[in-house]
Amino acid sequence: MSTPSIPQSPLHQDPVHGKVVAITGASSGIGEATALHLAAHGARLLLGARRRERLDALVARIREQGGEAVAQTVDVTRHDQVEAFVGAAVAHFGRLDVMVGNAGVMPLSPLDAGRVDE
User: Fold this and answer.
1) Which residues does UniProt assign to the signal peptide (predicted)?
2) Three-state secondary structure along the chain?
3) Long-range contacts of 80-84 (CB under 8 A, 24+ apart)
4) Which end of the chain has the least Cβ crowding within 10 Å, N or C?
5) How much is the pLDDT for 13?
6) What is the pTM for the complete model shown?
């Protein structure tokens, strides 16, 4: 005998569903896996990295599975590109709920030094 499924009420819906999430470093590895996981839970995604062809392939894969995603090239070492990336999420989706900073940047200093230009 199978267990009946519990009907989904607004209080029991997946909290990720419908959230707008921007992910840097999304073209491979943890960023790609995060994008696929969030898309499976109904997040609306803006995917960023330097390798556009890999981003486009990931967007196509997500869309084929019924998800919603767009890609934008971004180099997180360039402040103007990061600002444009966030702006693209707002322009396309109307808002940004979550930013996942997954791109590989490694400043060699204590975090509290606030060094962001390296």
Assistant:
1) none
2) CCCCCCCCCHHHCCCCCCCEEEEECCCCHHHHHHHHHHHHCCCEEEEEECCHHHHHHHHHHHHHCCCEEEEEECCCCCHHHHHHHHHHHHHHHCCCCEEEECCCCCCCCCHHHCCCCC
3) 82/24
4) N
5) 79
6) 0.81
Torsion of Cα atoms, 84 then 28 then 58 then 44, to 10°: -50
The pLDDT value recorded for residue 113 is 77
Q: Nearest to residue 71, comparing CAs of 62, 79, 34, 80?
A: 62
Cα distances (Å, whole numbers) of residue 2 to 7, 8, 9, 99: 15, 18, 21, 40
**Model confidence pLDDT, tens digit, residues 23-37:** 999 999 999 999 999
Token reading at 65: 């599975």
Q: How high does pLDDT run on average in the chain?
A: 87
